[in-house]
Specification:
Blueprint (H helix, E strand, L loop, with lengths): L1 H7 L2 H8 L5 H26 L8 E2 L1 H7 L4 H13 L3 E4 L3 E4 L4 H25 L3 H11 L8 H22 L2 H23 L8 H12 L3 H23 L5
Antiparallel strand pairs: 1-3, 2-3
């Protein structure tokens, strides 16, 4: 402690502090704010996805700052990002509102997923020979869950997302990967909402293994078709649940 005190009172150190660039401390504060904004963004995003904040809920800036232990600025910055993610809507002079998911939104989401993820599966079969990632995909494809066991299904949701993102990684196309990441935010919301009404979905293990097998065999046409069938099979189940009509 005595050495630290001496360092603080050192004239040379004082001169160095005095000669620091004018923006140094401002830059440090900015970095700190950015970090806090990222933390608030991740925490609030997770709470929206998992249903802590249900669709349509109104959120106040002051309450959010208190809940996530921050000032209002990081909350405001996080809200702007979440609006870009289509998870939250900012209405001037009224506050923040969690977005709702309509039947049309569901249809649009699955159409979008098919366009993006079928391309990922096709490209992964053409150029995705990454032994380590293929080994991880094998493990993920065999993930099971127990019906009426929320914890096991939450683990499945996480690993299901990792499975689809890993295929996008095999495609080696950053734009496609970003698109899949965006779609998975909405998919996880749907899957968590389904748990709350007691629906755990189908067991997609066989479909995942089929897609992976086609990728390993470098059969791009089969990989694309199997991904298409997998996505639209899921869509039909979800639309039935939501009261919509599968096409």
């Amino acid at each position: 402690m005595e050495k630290l005190k001496n360092k603080r009172s050192s004239p040379s150190l004082a001169r160095r502090e005095h000669l620091s660039p004018p923006g140094r401390h401002a830059a440090l504060r900015e970095t700190s704010t950015d970090s806090l904004s990222q933390r608030v963004y991740q925490a609030l995003k997770r709470d929206i996805i998992t249903g802590v904040h249900p669709p349509g809920e109104a959120l106040g800036e002051k309450d959010l700052a208190k809940r996530y232990s921050s000032s209002r600025t990081p909350v405001r910055e996080a809200a702007l990002r979440l609006q870009q993610d289509h998870l939250l809507k900012i209405i001037p002079n009224r506050g923040y509102f969690i977005t709702k998911i309509s039947v049309q939104d569901l249809t649009d989401l699955y159409d979008y997923r098919a366009a993006v993820e079928c391309a990922c599966a096709e490209l992964a079969a053409m150029k995705g020979m990454n032994p380590a990632l293929l080994e991880r995909l094998e493990e993920l494809a065999n993930t099971e869950y127990k019906v009426n066991d929320r914890k096991s299904y939450e683990n499945f949701i996480s690993r299901d997302t990792e499975f689809h993102l890993s295929i996008a990684q095999l495609a080696r196309n950053q734009l496609l990967l970003q698109a899949v990441e965006a779609a998975r935010c909405q998919m996880e919301r749907i899957m968590y909402a389904a748990i709350d009404i007691g629906y755990y979905g189908e067991f997609p293990g066989r479909e995942h293994r089929g897609i992976l097998d086609a990728i390993k065999k470098r059969d791009s046409r089969a990989a694309r078709q199997l991904m298409y069938d997998h996505i639209f099979g899921s869509r039909d189940q979800v639309l039935k649940l939501a009261g919509g009509n599968p096409r």
